[in-house]
Write a structure and sequence with these properties.
Elements: H1 8-28, H2 31-52, H3 58-77, H4 84-93, H5 98-108, H6 111-114, H7 117-121, H8 124-129, H9 147-164, H10 170-195, H11 201-205, H12 210-217, H13 236-240, H14 265-269
Helix pairs in contact: 1-2, 2-3, 4-5, 4-9
The structure holds iron/sulfur cluster (SF4) (3 copies).
Residues 224, 240-243, 245, 247, 260-266 line the site of one iron/sulfur cluster.
Length: 275
Amino acid sequence: MRKFKPYLPPVCCLLIFEAVAVTLWLTKHNLFYLFNFTYIGCSLSLGLFLFIKKHRHARRVAQLLVGSYMLVYLGLICRENMQIEGFWYYLFTGVFEAATIHYAVAKIFGPLLFGRGWCGYACWTAMVLDFLPYRVPAQPRKKLGWLRYVTFAASLIFVGALFFAKVGSIERIMFWAFLVGNVLYYAVGVALAFWFKDNRAFCKYICPITVFLKPMSYFSLVRIRCDKSKCVSCGKCQKVCPMEVDVTDNSRKRKNGTECILCMECVKNCPKDAL
Ligand code: SF4
Ligand code: SF4
Ligand code: SF4
């Protein structure tokens, strides 16, 4: 039995997603939910399994499997706007489908359980940004976090204006908004990464979804903790952290604590297994 204990996280992850998959399939009478959440659960569990097996690219495998599925299958093939504009759109129409379920699970209530796991293992924007050369920021953090509120408000005003003006064929506009929005996100994300020498600059300053993610992940159940009795204050964990989190501080108020994307780089690099 002890032999199987390390594999509990991937099994639990799969079971949680399967429970969501079956519940939504039966309550919404739509087989898509069974397929969707089973696929995502399997991809994340595979990532966790590879991490346990100490595979170097475990997180990236999960991130690429989930991120490309969301972008290509749900976004481009099924024409679902899974960006924040799609969330506002479904919210205004009062439909609890696709983007609203996605936001509720991954970005609003889910973070109470798994923090910013979405940002580390599933986001299709970061999936591309993580290929860039600045995995760890090479410049000090800028005071530009307020920009996220501007992009958040802009997305809300954009969709609100479409409804207010009673514009026809909103579905088609939302699909184009998804395409244009993604191109913009990638362009700005890549430009900022090179400008600030930080792959995750877009996440830190621009991404509107962090307006949901940050406060909710403050209460996250799953978080990296430091065993102070083992820590020798070598600082290695902070040197490898892409989000500049002070992971040696166990309080919820730790520096950049709501930005931890659970990438496990600190855990992998701690010489004393203190994390
Ligand atoms: S902060 Fe935004 S862009 Fe960055 S990983 Fe999270 S959701 Fe994606
Ligand atoms: S890498 Fe490990 S030992 Fe070093 S400061 Fe971080 S937690 Fe402590
Ligand atoms: S390196 Fe550690 S503290 Fe930093 S984001 Fe990754 S898991 Fe969180």
